[in-house]
Amino acid sequence: MKYFISLDMEGIAGLVSWSETSQEQRELMTGETCAAIEGIRSVDGAAAIVVADSHSRGQNLLLDRLPQDIQVVRGYPRPLYMVEGADETCDAALFVGYHAPVGTRNGSMDHTYSSSAIYEVLANGHVVGETELNMVLLARLGIPFIFGSGDEQYCEFSQQFFPHALFVTTKWATGRYSQRTLMPEASKSLIRDGAANATRRLMSEGRSSLADAQLQGAVQHEVLAMSPSTWTVRFLTTSACDVAAWIPGTRRSGGRELSYTSDEPTQLYGFLMSCAVAGKYERDL
What percentage of the chain reaches a pLDDT higher than 70? Predict the structure, then answer.
């Protein structure tokens, strides 16, 4: 079977802020990625694996530490960013090092795609985080989300959208830049076991069954399956919204609010990526 792993940084055990050294980030992110791969392959020894390095510029993983028969998606910008490399041949998705949506109290480095530009993102009226936005595209491809790891608030938030997935908590934040955390080896052990259990369930119940299950329930249907779908971005500033409003097909409903509707997930994702880039305009003033 084929597995897609999307890797972020803010939910990695031990990392408390964006001021951490690059090398420390890379070491810990690589360690938790390896743990997820080991967990998958402890159950499915022939697993094919694609990893999307999805934090910042996508240049975090230490490639010589990874199994050399996997594939890694690196670099930025890229059209599908956190889910670049996933396609209909993937049987399951696992998200490692993820974090709570922007505005979450006691969320580790909480943000949604851009800490410098975006105040909030809604999918068909529901406030969502990166897991939910990423899974709109993957769910349309029939890929079930089976495993997620990150801070406590991330797990609690995304569990309500994906009650059938397995989540592993790596740390408990007491503020945006403060936390009580597992040690790296303890976190890797939990991730290894969690990925193994999630893989075991996938192989037992099957891809189609789990993909169908994740669309059951009113909220799940409205966020993941409704077509056409409307995504709304609320920006931190009016000037960022000014620039993003140049995107064709958008509708502006306030000084900082912009919406886009499409029945094609890749177009919705393009809108979101463009909003994140438009927010960088502020940094150049």
Answer: 98
Distances in whole angstroms, Cα of residue 167 to Cα of each of 17, 57, 198:
22, 26, 9
Sheet containing 118-123: which strands, arranged edge to edge? 126-127, 118-123, 229-235, 257-262, 251-252
The single-letter DSSP state of residue 225 is I
Domains and CATH numbers, the chain: 2-121+129-218 (3.40.50.10780), 227-284 (3.30.1360.130)
- Give the number of C-alpha atoms closer than 13 A to the C-alpha of residue 230, restricted to the C-beta side: 11
Partners of 55 in the β-ladder: none
Q: What is the dihedral of CA 136, 138, 140, 144, to 10 degrees?
A: -110
Range list of H helices, the chain: 22-43, 130-140, 152-159, 184-205, 207-213, 218-220, 238-244, 265-279
DSSP letter, residue 9: S
Spatial contact of 76 and 58, defined as CB atoms under 8 Å apart: yes
Nearest-Å Rg of the Cα atoms of the chain is 18
207: which 2 tokens? 């891809």
**In 3-state terms, what secondary structure has residue 44?**
coil
pLDDT at residue 285 in the model: 64
Query: How far is residue 282's CA from residue 285's CA, in Å, rounded to a whole number?
Result: 6
In this structure, which amino acid lies at residue 196? A
Decide: pTM greater than 0.90. Answer: yes
* Nearest alpha carbon to residue 98 among 135, 125, 68, 126: 135
